[in-house]
Design a protein that fits this description.
CATH architecture of one domain: 2-Layer Sandwich
Order of helices and strands: EHEHEEEHEHHHEEEHEEEHEE
CATH superfamily of one domain: Cyanuric acid hydrolase/Barbituras, RU C
Oligomer: single chain
Strand content: 25-35%
Shape: globular
Radius of gyration: 19 Å
CATH class of one domain: Alpha Beta
Structural class: alpha+beta
CATH topology of one domain: 60s Ribosomal Protein L30, Chain: A
Length: about 350
């Protein structure tokens, strides 16, 4: 079990590590960092090297067991920033529970496994281990955040030279396949779906999802970085979490309902982790949208901008983690939502289940 604190710090560029000064100013060192989760101002697509730059800047400065998760794309009102998850097991007697986190990494995902059962099972097994390490149940988990690889042109050529057809021959589509396999691995590990359902979903069915899964693809790694956030009665700190989902890109009500739960607990929102996607049906509430047919701007960029505005309005600023591409991360056209919030001391424990429960 590892209790955590959260620091959210704006950045001036992908290679900005000044958050380390904020860290030391709060009495912590780089060795205390479990994870760096950031939004960078790239395009969020295959050739988004802002993620690579951010990882190259941060990884030498934090411990070898820490993980980085950088999601490209700060379209619209989204603000580039980093979230530092900091290990802190300080016992605060005013709280009878608290936020806990564990991080890990899958083995290298071979290109032939990307987007397929091999990747799904690697994520499933890593998540399961981390939940056990935390000493909590699957019901106490509110977010599993995964950074997963994609297929490069070299990967695709190499597979075909070996007589193996990749999960996708398109590098951009491989991002979606990788996110899908990772998300289904999360859902399997948390007991939200069974093996047969997961395999059917991996084959293309969109009837299975997890509203606690958040997956982002990139070319800057060949393993899956995994962060699990939950709430434990073995920890005692002021941070809490809840999870829910948006039904579609208009679903401000879901975010407001989550904010109401936080307010009822006497808390304040510290961060929102939200997935967004352009509805694959081509319509939202009966009206046609053009996000999927825009040749100038990728659909994931449209989705981030739209959902980012709603999310920023609820938090009150643009330093929110909104990630595009929500395959099996919430229902189709919607997206998973996790809210991390802070409460004051009190004699009773607030609810830590999903906002929709």
């Amino acid at each position: 079990m590892t209790g955590v604190r959260l620091l959210t710090v704006p950045t001036t560029g992908p290679d900005d590590t000044d958050a380390l000064d904020t860290l030391s100013g709060n009495g912590y060192s780089a060795d205390d960092v479990l994870a760096v989760v950031g939004k960078t101002e790239g395009n969020g697509c295959v050739n988004d090297f802002s993620r690579t730059l951010a990882a190259a800047a941060w990884e030498p400065r934090i411990g070898p067991d820490a993980v980085t998760v950088f999601s490209g794309g700060t379209e619209g009102v989204l603000a580039p920033h980093v979230n530092l998850l900091i290990a802190d097991d300080t016992h605060d007697p005013r709280h009878d529970r608290g936020l806990v986190a564990a991080v890990g990494e899958t083995p290298v995902i071979p290109p032939e496994d990307l987007g397929r059962v091999g990747q799904m099972e690697a994520v499933r097994d890593t998540v399961a281990k981390l939940v056990v390490d935390l000493g909590i149940s699957a019901d106490d988990v509110h977010l599993v955040l995964v950074k997963c690889p994609l297929l490069t042109s070299t990967d695709i050529t190499g597979l075909r030279d070996r007589g193996i057809e990749p999960a996708s021959g398109d590098t951009y589509e491989s991002m979606a396949r990788s996110r899908a396999a990772s998300s289904l691995g999360i859902a399997l590990s948390l007991g939200e779906i069974d093996e047969d359902t997961a395999r059917a979903a991996l084959a293309g069915q969109r009837t299975a999802w997890s509203n606690r899964a958040s997956a982002s693809s990139g070319a800057e790694l060949n393993t899956c970085h995994v962060l699990v956030l939950g709430v434990s009665t073995e920890a005692s700190n002021p941070l809490r979490a809840l999870h829910t989902e948006m039904a579609d890109a208009y679903d401000l009500a879901a975010l407001q309902k989550a904010a109401d739960v936080v307010a009822q607990d006497g808390g304040r929102i510290r961060q929102l982790f939200v997935k967004a996607e352009s509805d694959p049906s081509g319509t939202i509430r009966g009206l046609r949208h053009t996000m999927l047919t825009d040749s100038d701007i990728n659909a994931t960029r449209h989705a981030r901008a739209a959902v980012g505005a709603l999310t920023a309005a609820v938090k009150g600023d643009g330093a929110v983690y909104v990630s595009g591409g929500a395959e099996h991360q919430g229902r189709p056209g919607g997206g998973s939502v996790t809210v991390v919030y802070e409460v004051g001391p009190g004699p009773t424990a607030p609810s830590n289940r999903g906002a929709d429960q």
